[in-house]
Structure formats: structure tokens, C-alpha cells
Design goal:
The protein has helices spanning 13-25, 39-61, 70-95, 103-131, 135-138, 142-168, 176-179, 193-201. By secondary structure, it is mainly α. It has a domain at 30-175. Helix 4 (103-131) runs antiparallel to helix 6 (142-168). The protein is elongated. Bound molecules: protoporphyrin IX containing FE. Residues 38, 40-41, 44, 47-48, 84, 87-88, 91-92, 94-95, 108, 111-112, 115-116, 118-119, 159, 162-163, 165-166, 171-172 line the site of protoporphyrin IX containing FE.
Length: 212
């Protein structure tokens, strides 16, 4: 974008898409994590675990002797909300790398909306828990539990869109050339004379080194 340093004549829509994709590969600044190390991906694991844990403890609080689980469930809801806001902060930094007017930006916007809805659902769920003084003794109030379950369902859809951003559109994934570094043969790094001798006696190898 805004690059006017004599690029090839009449760049087409494919060039624009490739430029937009390559821009989304890179972090906007050091705060969002290094190239190939997005902090949003890492930070998102905490609210996902906390929200799923909330529902697990809510269910436990309704079973047999498990009523005391209402208390840790409340704590997990708070941990999820706070860590969700932190994850969202890193998410917005990466969101700003995705060009407006693209399919990837649409998916990212939907992901943003759904994840914000999830956090809000858990905020309301937590307020309902606190409003019921007996929930530490009698388990999670049903309306709070229903909101938490709905929150987790919405979160699964949102996370699926998040993975579309990464695995289908390559947001914050390194360039293809840089990925090749991970596939360079480690055997080539310390090849000794024996290994070379083996290679020349191996009928399946090409000892000439000729390229056709
Ligand atoms: C509770 C809040 C959030 C959670 C749990 C969450 C979760 C996720 C997950 C699971 C992925 C896929 C990561 C992977 O497979 O490596 C993802 C990717 C992504 N999310 Fe979120 N997200 C949240 C909030 C946000 C917000 C508010 C935005 C802002 C638009 C956002 C933007 C992105 C972007 C741009 C990606 C692509 C990869 C990256 O940047 O690391 N997320 N998110």
C-alpha cells in the first residue's frame, strides 16, 4: 500500500491481494509479538480454558456433592473475562494489519464481534452469580450457567473463525520462503566423509549430483 518505488507495470488485483496478505504476515509492532510469534494466539488460550472450565465447574456445582464448585466457577469466569480483554487487545493489533475491504477483514470483524459477545456474556453471568449470595453453597444459579454455556458455544464459532484467519488466510503466519527453513534437511549440516561414502554406494542415491 502506498508503495511507489517503480514496481512492475500495471499491478493487478492479484498483486494487491498478495501485498495485503504479506502485510498481514507481519506484526504491526513489537507489542503484538515477533514475526511468526503472535501473542494473540498465545493469550487466547487462557480465556478459552477459563470459560470452558467455568462451564465444567457450573455443571459440577449442580451434581450431588459438588455444590461448592459454584465458587471456583465464579473465579474462572472472572479470570476468563480479564484474560479475554488482554487477548482482545493483542487481537486488535493484528486486526489492524488486515486490509479493509478484504474477505479476511470481514472474517476478522465477525471474529471480533463474536469474541466480544462472549466476554460480555460472561460479565453478565458473573454479575448474576454475585447477585445470588447462596451460590457458594447451592451451586451456580441456572441463568448464570445458561449464559456461560451460550458463551462457550459462541466462543467455539468465534475460535473457528480465528483459525480460518490463521490456517486459511495466513494472518501472522510467516512467508513461504521463511517456512522453508523448517524443512531444510538437518542431515546436510554435519555431513562427514562416511555419510558421503554411504551415499555413493547407495543404489537409490544419485552420486553424480547432476541435475539432469
Ligand atoms: C476472548 C477473546 C478472543 C479469543 C479467545 C480469541 C481467540 C482466537 C483464536 C483461537 C484464534 C486462532 C489462533 C490460532 O489458531 O493460532 C484467533 C485468531 C485471531 N484473532 Fe482472536 N480471539 C479473541 C479476541 C479477538 C479480538 C477482539 C480480535 C480483534 C479483531 C481478534 C483478532 C484475531 C486475529 C487477527 C486473529 C488471526 C491470528 C492472530 O492474530 O494471532 N481476536 N483468535
Amino acid at each position: 500500500m502506498g508503495d511507489s518505488n517503480g514496481s512492475p507495470a500495471s499491478p493487478g488485483p492479484g498483486d494487491d491481494a498478495a501485498r495485503a496478505r504479506d502485510a498481514a504476515h507481519r506484526p504491526g509492532n513489537a507489542v503484538s509479538g515477533g514475526y511468526g510469534h503472535p501473542l494473540h494466539t498465545l493469550a487466547a488460550t487462557v480465556p478459552i480454558g477459563a470459560f470452558v472450565g467455568t462451564v465444567a465447574f457450573d455443571i459440577a456445582s449442580k451434581l450431588g456433592e459438588g455444590r461448592a464448585f459454584g465458587r471456583p466457577a465464579s473465579w474462572l469466569a472472572v479470570i476468563g473475562v480479564v484474560s479475554g480483554v488482554v487477548a482482545a487487545f493483542f487481537g486488535v493489533l493484528d486486526f489492524l494489519r488486515i486490509s479493509p475491504g478484504t474477505k479476511a477483514r470481514q472474517v476478522a470483524t465477525l471474529h471480533l464481534i463474536l469474541m466480544d459477545v462472549v466476554v460480555l456474556l460472561f460479565v453478565v453471568s458473573f454479575i448474576l452469580r454475585r447477585a445470588d449470595d447462596t451460590h457458594y453453597l447451592h451451586g451456580t444459579p441456572v441463568p448464570a450457567m445458561v449464559l456461560a454455556i451460550v458463551g462457550v458455544v459462541v466462543m467455539v464459532v468465534g475460535a473457528w473463525l480465528g483459525s480460518t484467519l490463521v490456517y486459511s488466510y495466513g494472518v501472522r503466519v510467516v512467508d513461504d520462503e521463511d517456512q522453508l527453513a523448517g524443512y531444510a534437511s538437518t542431515a546436510s549440516e554435519g555431513v562427514d566423509a562416511d555419510a558421503q561414502a554411504d551415499a555413493t554406494t547407495d543404489p537409490t542415491s544419485d552420486p553424480s549430483g547432476d541435475v539432469d
